[in-house]
Amino acid sequence: MEPAVPAAPVRKIERESLEARKQRLAAARRRATALLGAVTVLFIVVTGFGVHGTLLGYVQAGSEAAMVGGIADWFAVTALFRHPLGLPIPHTAVIVERKDQFAATLGQFVQENFLNADVLADRIRGAGLARRLASWLADPDNAGRFAGHAADVVVTLAGTLSDEDVQSALTAEMTRAAANIDVAPLAGRVVGVMIAGGHHQVLFNTLVTGADHYLETHREDLRERFESEAPRWLPDVVYGRAFDRLHSRLRERLSAMAADPDDEARKQFEDWIAGLPEQLKTSASMRERGETIKRELLASEGVRDWTSWLWKNAKESLRMQASDPDSQLRRRITVALAAAGRRLGDDQPLQDSLSRVLEAGARRLADQFHDELAGLVTGTIQRWDATETSTQLELLLGRDLQFIRINGTVVGAGVGLALHAIALALA
Questions:
Q1: What is the rounded distance in angstroms from the CA atom of residue 425 to the CA atom of residue 64?
Q2: Quick one: DSSP state of residue 1?
Q3: Residue ranges of the alpha helices (H) in 128-263?
Q4: Domain assignment of residue 297, yes or no
Q5: Can you list the alpha helix ranges (DSSP code H) found in 82-139?
């Protein structure tokens, strides 16, 4: 493949105010009209006094031809934008009368010469976009700015989503994922890991301590329940002492269980929990019980409330991280973009691959949308007011067209002098 030839630099158009354009056009008109007036006066003076001598003959012929050339070019330039002298001469006020045809022609021209797939692909290839993108991203400042814009876009997109829709989607996805999980075997593996790490001892102590704490803090509630169940024929002092003794003995037993590593209850708990993983993996009843608990949990309002809370907090956290230039989100995006830029800059095959992707994308866009874009150009121009369009084009091009008038006057004078010389030579 031949190396791409870099495109010639395009000179930036100088932006002028409307008033400045009007002043420049008026000045150009005055110059062209003044020249036409000068040659007209010269022709009238020479003709009025009569032609005497060869020199005055040349002056008369040159001024006459210059006057004709200047008037002809004045007519031609004026006819582009309006009717000369206000006369409805055919084929004048061309832009006003043929605006719609001009719009269609311009749209077709843009479609064939600018929105052509080959033209766009060549332009992208010659611009070296992949190499320039790599260089731009490798700059940490550029990567940081881009990261800020990317984070803002993510926040904006998140803000457009309905909280109810996201919560429903999260709940549905979690339900779908949980439906494929067999709870009992998973619980068995979790218990096995806990036993391997010795955490079942902590669990036992926690259960015993929790039971003791419950007895301590709910003493009066338990006493009332005990009294309500006691036979009415027993004196209050009897079942009161019985409750106190039972409550005290229970707490003593719990304290002993927690303090003694060789306690019989602890050993029974260890034997039971040691066989629990295998039971959870093989027992059909435990498996069914686990599935029932899973279904009830997934159908509960708590799960929906949790997914709603999760989304709202994630969105708020994202908003705060995106607005803070020093946040973890912004820093990580910046580092990732800068690293991608360096990688792209050092990897020529990756650059070539990205260039091919861009070219292919440009070709697809051109093939798919070139009719619509050409129609946009055509439709936009057709909606313009014809007189206003003519005025704006005259302000844009009129100054150069006034030099055509000056050139026509000068060229006409030269042609007139040449023809006069030829006529004298043939006389």
A1: 19
A2: -
A3: 129-138, 140-160, 163-179, 183-196, 199-217, 219-229, 236-259
A4: yes
A5: 94-97, 99-113, 117-127, 129-138
d(CA 339, CA 31): 61
* Contact status, residue 67 vs residue 412, Cβ threshold 8 Å: yes
pLDDT, tens digit, 9 for 90 and up, residues 102-149: 777 777 777 666 667 777 778 777 778 888 888 888 888 888 888 888
pTM (2 d.p.): 0.45
Contact 293, 183 (CB under 8 A): yes
Q: Answer yes or no: do 81 and 152 share one domain.
A: no
Encoded tokens for 171: 């709940």
For residue 404, tell me if it sits in a domain.
yes
Q: Do 147 and 80 share a structural domain?
A: no
Q: How far apart are CA 318 and CA 315, in angstroms?
A: 5
What count of residues does the chain have? 427
The angle subtended at Cα 30 by Cα 25 and Cα 32, nearest 5°, is: 95
CA dist 58 to 1, 314, 425, Å? 62, 91, 13
Q: How many whole angstroms separate alpha carbon 420 and alpha carbon 62? A: 8
